[in-house]
Design a protein that fits this description.
single chain; mainly alpha; globular
C-alpha cells in the first residue's frame, strides 16, 4: 500500500511541473525505467535480437510513429473516454491499453518495455496535458514519444557497430 501511495505522490508531483520541466523529466524517467526493465528481462530470459528494427527508417520511427500513434492510440481513446464521462484514471487506461496491445505484436519484450512501461508514460503525458488542451496533449505526447524512439534508434545503431 505504501508503494502505491508513493507512486501516486510521484506522478501527482509531475502535474505541478511546467511543460519543459515535465517533458525532459518524464522522457528521461520513462526511458530509464524501460531500459531497466529490458535489462532485467535480458538477465532472466534470452531475448530475441531486434534486427527487425534495423530496416525501419529514422523518419518512420522518430517522426511518423509518434505523430500517428498519438493521434490513433492516445487522442481517440481519450476522446471516447472523456465522452463517456470517465475521469483521469479511466482516460489513462483508455490510452494505455491499446498502445500496449499494439506493441505486443512486435514481441513480448517490446510489449512489456515499449507497450506497458513506455506506454504508461505516454498515456500519462497525454491524459495529463489533455486537461489543458488537445494541442498541449498532442504535442507533449508526440515529443516525449519521439525522444524515446530517438534514443532507441541511437541504441540500435550503437549495438550494430
Amino acid at each position: 500500500m505504501r508503494i502505491a501511495q508513493s507512486l501516486r505522490d510521484h506522478f501527482a508531483a509531475y502535474q505541478l511541473r511546467s511543460k519543459g520541466d515535465f517533458l525532459w523529466r518524464v522522457t528521461l524517467e520513462g526511458l530509464a525505467v524501460s531500459l531497466g526493465v529490458i535489462l532485467l528481462l535480458g538477465l532472466a530470459f534470452e531475448l530475441p535480437d531486434r534486427t527487425d528494427l534495423k530496416g525501419v527508417t529514422f523518419t518512420q520511427l522518430v517522426c511518423l510513429a509518434p505523430l500517428l500513434e498519438t493521434l490513433l492510440l492516445q487522442s481517440l481513446p481519450v476522446m471516447v473516454a472523456r465522452a463517456m464521462g470517465l475521469g483521469f484514471r479511466g482516460q489513462l487506461l483508455a490510452a494505455w491499453i491499446p498502445f500496449a496491445a499494439l506493441h505486443f505484436s512486435a514481441g513480448v519484450d517490446t510489449g512489456i518495455c515499449a507497450g506497458i512501461v513506455s506506454g504508461f508514460y505516454i498515456a500519462f503525458t497525454y491524459t495529463h496535458w489533455r486537461q489543458e488542451s488537445f494541442g498541449s496533449a498532442y504535442w507533449m505526447t508526440t515529443g516525449t514519444h519521439a525522444l524515446h524512439n530517438l534514443a532507441l534508434v541511437m541504441l540500435i545503431r550503437l549495438g550494430s557497430d
